[in-house]
Amino acid sequence: MKWLIPAFLAALSWFVPAQSAAQGWEALEAPDAIVLMRHALAPGGGDPAGFRLEDCNTQRNLSRAGRAQAETIGAELRARGVVFDKIWSSAWCRCQHTATLLGLGAVQVEPSLNSFFGGQGDRLGQTAATLSRLSQSKGRRMLVTHQVNITALTGIFPQSGEMIVVEMQKGQLAVTGRILIAPPE
Question: By percentage, how much of the chain surpasses pLDDT 90?
Fold first, then answer.
């Protein structure tokens, strides 16, 4: 039964109106644009048995293709002159590594962005905390996190490395664009 909700959300994301890459880049030009980025390619799902947050060797990590994907995305953002005032990441190694490999600036761990897949964490509490944090901050922000977090915030099931551009509207997030620079291999 646990698989039913993620499967439904994945199917639902196919019905979210597709937006052109141009719309995504245009949305990103807003001074208060927020980017929700799913970490780069880390094959598999969830984390292996024996997972420990403080030990990357126990986690599902970026593949070679995932590392290259993150570097390509960062290079494209830099080439377009995209600058972020804040870059927040989940504490999971695959998110921190993605955020670092983008090469866009200092990365700050934000616990509300941690995964709540498979019953770990607190979906409602973390989603509310992320919205609160975003409401209390200004500037262009990038959040590198997990599919479940992005889906909870937007209803979209993003691909690895996909960026969902959003804006705050009355305490909620409204999707203004989607950008997929380097599709996962």
Answer: 79
